[in-house]
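User: Can you recover a sequence for this backbone? Please restate the input before giving your answer.

Assistant: Of course. Working from this structure:
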C-alpha cells in the first residue's frame, strides 16, 4: 500500500508539488478553449484575434414550467426541503431557478464583496437573485469550472452546489457597479458582452466552517501520525512544511507539540460533518480543485448557522494541466473513510452522459475533450484508491451508513 507519511516519498512530493491556481500564485500557460493571451478589452483587441466567440443558445424549457421567486435571503431562514426527484439544492428544484437565471432581465447590479476575483450580485425581475462570475484572466476564476462542477454534483446526487446557468451580460450593464475597482482590466469582454457562470443566491446566508484542530482523524481508519503534514491547507504552506520534514524528519515538530496533537480528540459540530467532509474531498479530487483549503477556510462553507456543508466557489476547478497534481493526490491519500453511496455514484458515472449534459448549457463549449479525459483519469484513480483501502481495512472504510 502506498503511504504518504515521513518516508522518502515526501521529498518527491515537495519537489513536484504543482503551484495552485489561487490568489497567491501567478498564472501559468493554458491549453483549453477558454485560454486567452491577454485581456480582451473593447477598444484594444478584436475578440476574434484571441478566441472564438462563444456559441449561445436558449436554455431548453418545457411549456408548463412555472418560475417562482425564491424566498428573500435576508431573514436568515433556510427553507424546509421539499420532496423532489429531479435536480435540486437541498430540496429546492433547479429547473425554475435556472430558467429565471437564464432569461429574466436585470433590475439591479452591485459589486460582489470579498474574494480575489471580480463578481456581481444581480437582482432580476421577479426578485430572483444571483451571483455572476464573469470570464476573466485571473487564474482561479474559471466560469467553466463552476458550470462543470455543478453538473458533476448533480450527476453524483450530492446536490450541494447551488443551481446555476451559463449566461452573458452586456459589460455596459456591469461596469458601473465595478466603479474604479482595480480588477476591471481582468474582465474579458467580447463584442460588448461578458460570458460567465450565473450562480443562484444561497438563501439563509453562508459562512466558513470552523475547523477543529485534528479533524483529519475523522477521515482515517489508521492513526494519523502527529508528524504528518496535513495537505488541507494552502499549497505554499504544505510545500514548505514538506521541505522541513525532508530536512528534519519527525523533529520538524517539537516533542511538546507532538504530544499535544496526540491528545486531540475533536468532536464534530454535527453528526454528519465527517461524512460531508469526506464527500467534499472526493468531489474536489474529481474536479481538480486545488483552491479549497487555506486562507481561513474561506471556501469551506456551511449554509446558515451550524448548517450543512455546501460546495460553493468551484471556479478553480477543471483547470487545464496535469490531471493528477501531487497536492490533490496527497489530499486523496489522506482519506480512508467514505460514504458508500457516494462511491457507488462515482462508479456509475458515465462520462458520455456528462458530456451530453454539459452540451445543454446555453454557452458552449464548457469543457474541452482534454478536460473530460482528465476527469475520467481522476475518477479511475479515485476508485483504485478506494479499492486499495477496502482490501486493507474491509468494512471499516464505509464509516457513514
Amino acid at each position: 500500500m502506498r503511504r504518504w507519511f515521513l518516508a522518502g516519498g515526501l521529498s518527491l512530493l515537495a519537489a513536484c508539488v504543482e503551484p495552485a491556481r489561487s490568489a497567491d500564485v501567478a498564472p501559468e500557460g493554458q491549453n483549453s478553449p477558454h485560454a486567452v493571451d491577454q485581456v480582451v478589452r473593447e477598444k484594444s483587441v478584436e475578440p476574434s484575434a484571441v478566441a472564438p466567440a462563444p456559441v449561445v443558445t436558449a436554455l431548453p424549457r418545457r411549456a408548463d414550467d412555472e418560475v417562482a421567486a425564491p424566498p428573500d435571503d435576508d431573514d436568515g431562514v433556510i427553507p424546509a426541503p421539499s420532496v423532489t426527484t429531479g435536480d435540486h439544492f437541498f430540496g429546492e428544484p433547479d429547473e425554475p431557478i435556472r430558467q429565471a437565471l437564464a432569461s429574466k432581465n436585470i433590475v439591479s447590479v452591485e459589486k460582489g464583496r470579498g474574494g480575489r476575483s471580480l463578481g456581481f450580485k444581480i437582482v432580476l425581475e421577479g426578485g430572483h437573485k444571483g451571483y455572476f462570475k464573469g470570464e476573466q484572466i485571473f487564474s482561479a476564476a474559471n466560469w467553466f469550472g463552476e458550470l462543470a462542477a455543478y453538473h458533476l454534483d448533480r450527476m453524483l446526487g450530492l446536490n450541494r452546489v447551488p443551481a446555476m446557468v451559463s449566461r452573458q451580460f452586456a459589460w455596459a450593464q456591469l461596469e458601473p457597479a465595478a466603479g474604479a475597482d482595480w480588477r476591471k482590466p481582468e474582465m474579458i469582454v467580447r463584442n460588448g458582452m461578458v460570458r460567465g457562470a450565473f450562480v443562484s443566491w444561497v438563501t439563509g446566508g453562508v459562512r466558513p466552517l470552523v475547523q477543529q484542530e485534528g479533524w483529519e482523524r475523522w477521515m482515517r481508519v489508521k492513526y494519523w501520525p502527529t508528524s504528518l503534514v496535513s495537505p488541507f491547507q494552502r499549497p505554499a504552506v504544505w510545500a514548505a512544511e514538506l521541505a522541513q520534514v525532508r530536512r528534519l524528519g519527525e523533529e520538524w515538530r517539537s516533542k511538546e507539540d507532538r504530544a499535544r496533537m496526540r491528545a486531540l480528540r475533536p468532536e464534530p459540530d454535527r453528526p454528519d460533518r465527517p461524512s460531508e467532509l469526506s464527500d467534499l474531498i472526493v468531489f474536489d479530487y474529481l474536479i481538480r480543485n486545488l483552491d479549497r483549503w487555506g486562507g481561513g477556510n474561506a471556501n469551506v462553507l456551511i449554509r446558515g448557522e451550524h448548517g450543512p456543508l455546501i460546495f460553493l466557489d468551484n471556479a478553480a476547478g477543471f483547470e487545464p494541466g496535469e490531471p493528477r497534481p501531487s497536492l490533490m493526490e496527497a489530499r486523496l491519500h489522506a482519506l480512508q473513510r467514505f460514504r458508500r453511496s457516494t462511491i457507488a455514484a462515482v462508479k456509475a458515472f458515465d462520462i458520455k452522459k456528462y458530456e451530453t449534459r454539459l452540451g445543454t448549457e446555453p454557452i458552449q463549449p464548457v469543457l474541452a475533450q482534454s478536460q473530460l479525459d482528465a476527469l475520467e483519469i481522476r475518477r479511475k484513480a479515485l476508485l483504485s484508491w478506494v479499492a486499495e483501502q477496502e482490501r486493507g481495512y474491509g468494512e471499516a472504510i464505509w464509516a457513514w451508513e
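That completes the design. The longest strand covers residues 193-200.
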